Amino acid sequence: MFKIEPIKQERKAQKRKTNVAAFLGIPYYVILSVLIVIPVILIVFYSVTEKVNNLYYRFTFDYFVMFFKEPIFLKTLWNSIFLAIITTFVTLAVGYPLAYVIARRTPKVQALLILLVTAPMWINMLIRVLAWKQIFDMIDTNLLGTDLAIVVGMVYVYLPFMVLPIYTVISKIDPLLYEASADLGANNVKTFLKVTLPLSVGGILSGVTMVLLPAATTIVIPKILGNGKYLIGSLIEDRFLKAGNWGYGSAIAIILSLIIMLMVFITKRADKNKEVEKFEDY
Amino acid sequence: MNKDIKKNDSNHLDNPEQTTLIKLINVTKAFGDQVVLKGIDLEIFENEFVTLLGPSGCGKTTTLRIIGGFEIPSGGKVLLNERDILEIPAHKRPFNTVFQRYALFPHLDVYENVAFGLRIKKDKTDKRSKAEKEAEIDQKVMKYLNMVGLVGFERRSVNKLSGGQQQRVAIARALINEPRVLLLDEPLAALDLKLRQEMQYELKEIQRNAGITFIYVTHDQEEALTMSDKIVVMNEGEIQQVGNPEDIYNEPINTFVAKFIGESNIIEGIMKDDYLVSWDDKDYECVDYGFKRNEIIDIVLRPEDLDIVERGKGLIDGVVDSVVFKGVHYEIDVVAKERIYTIHTTDYQPEGKEVSITFEKEDIHVMEKW
């Protein structure tokens, strides 16, 4: 459900390919409807209906109203988004220089470094986060449950999602452009600001989207590193699993995704430069 | 090779008004084990159109990149006005480059690509207002867009331009910094023939009008002959010959230059005496001298210098073997007793006709064996 953005991109790509091989799209449409469209419809359905009896459902906005009437829930929502934004900034601050450095090595070294960046992803996330719990325990037990611990965990888990798209974009920049820039009188700093950075905006936006979305809805990390600190993901989980109130859970999930959609929309607006978008074709 | 270079340099010493701008002294370059330049000595004068000509892999682009500061030579010196510039990084050298693949900035439109160099050059002592500076930039950008005929394309994305237009943007972008030297790396290679010829003319015009030294890299000998004041023929990391187009064409110093510069009949012969050359057991008068007596040499006969005449009225007898229409002329192969001669002529000759070939003594170009 929080995959709205990737779907949009895939759809665009799909449109282009349709002319060439319309039939190749069939498996995609099947997956699209079974795994994405139908569940979303169901969630929307649950969120705006109330079960009266086994046969009869009643249309209602009560769940949405309920949510906005509960200050603790609103605070939870705010906390989640706040931590997600902090996480995104930190991963960007760490990930961009990393991607930049990797992209400018020789191809062999690049492959090795990218392997290292993605290597942690081969191990189950739960185990990695539990490992972090032990690390925090060793340093200072009081760290667990703080925002710092949660942010550190999320940065660790989501860093590859920031590094990979930025690396892809930077490594695709024609090295001749750096020479052209130097040729026209730009030193390394100016070349970075005037050539590399504008040409990597697309990668930054993809990275931001790919980190922001899961970070805002994560359940496992705050549960383990936050000492059960209540964030929006857990809130939704509990509505479904503990309270058995699917309608309420669905409504919160929809509110959250609308907020994320808005954030993604704002980030995309930051990318005013159409040429960059066109250049970024992964 | 040094002997040859000196011989050719003397051509230029005759001309006292030319001042040396760039000097390469024994420049070498190796990438790992691979030696790309084996000691380049070259003098480039002010306002000169110099072409580095040679097949791919001859080191011409590397030479250009060393001058531009994109490549550090393994040995030797590069002087600009007698000053060693090897320590100066590319962005501080008063040179600009038109790259082979243009290297336009895809995130900027035509106007901003051209303005790039001006925007980089921020002078902190310049106290004028932003609007004034912007007006100056605008005036200059429009001047150069006008020069390359791209007014009206300012806000066009560079990705939506044709090859020729992109090439013009690249030229305007490189010229706007008013460089001492413009380096051009096969700038016309990607264009079609017609456009290439137009651009050759325009580049030559720009060079004359702007009074800038052009160092031009190409593998196209026609391009080199059309545009250059001085051609530097290179092969396998060495300079073969330096000279003006006429010298290079008419007096190639060795078979490589002769073959590379145009189609030729290259014949091994013997220099029997000064002004007397012999091949295929026949003696011919010529205008060359200064070779050892009976030295084995190569002779170049340019196809357009040969004429086909009636049997018996020429110097060598033969039979027309093939006739190919080339547009302006026919390319005719005539089989003589010892070898085949290629002739370019505007007169048609039927295949199988018995003819003779004739030429003047100054059409015989004698070269040292290489």
Largest sheet of chain A: 2 strands, antiparallel
Average pLDDT metric of chain A = 84
Number of helices of chain B: 9
Could you give the count of β-strands of chain B? 20
Structural class of chain B: alpha+beta
Classify the fold: give the CATH topology of chain A: MetI-like fold
Question: How large, in whole angstroms, is the Cα Rg of chain B?
Answer: 25 Å
Architecture overview:
The complex is a heterodimer of chains A (282) and B (370). Chain A has 282 residues and is an all-alpha fold. Chain A has helices at 4-18, 26-47, 62-69, 71-103, 107-118, 125-139, 147-172, 175-183, 188-217, 220-225, 232-241, 246-270, 274-279, and strands at 49-51, 57-59. In chain A, strands 1-2 form a two-stranded antiparallel ribbon. Chain A is globular, with a radius of gyration of 22 Å. Chain A starts with a helix and ends with a helix. Residues 1-7 and 273-282 of chain A have low confidence and may be disordered. Chain B has 370 residues and is an alpha+beta fold. Chain B has two domains: 20-255, P-loop containing nucleotide triphosphate hydrolases (Rossmann fold, 3-Layer(aba) Sandwich), CATH 3.40.50.300; 264-368, Nucleic acid-binding proteins (OB fold (Dihydrolipoamide Acetyltransferase, E2P), Beta Barrel), CATH 2.40.50.140. Chain B has helices at 2-13, 60-68, 110-120, 130-147, 163-175, 193-210, 221-227, 245-250, 255-261; strands spanning 20-31, 34-45, 49-53, 75-80, 83-84, 95-98, 181-185, 213-218, 230-235, 238-243, 265-273, 276-279, 282-285, 295-301, 307-310, 316-325, 330-336, 340-345, 354-358, 365-368. Chain B starts with a helix and ends with a strand. The A-B interface holds A 174, 176-177, 179-187, 190, 194-195, 198-199, 273, 275-276, 278-279 and B 68-70, 89-92, 95-97, 99, 101, 103-109, 116-117, 119-121, 157, 159, 173-174, 177.
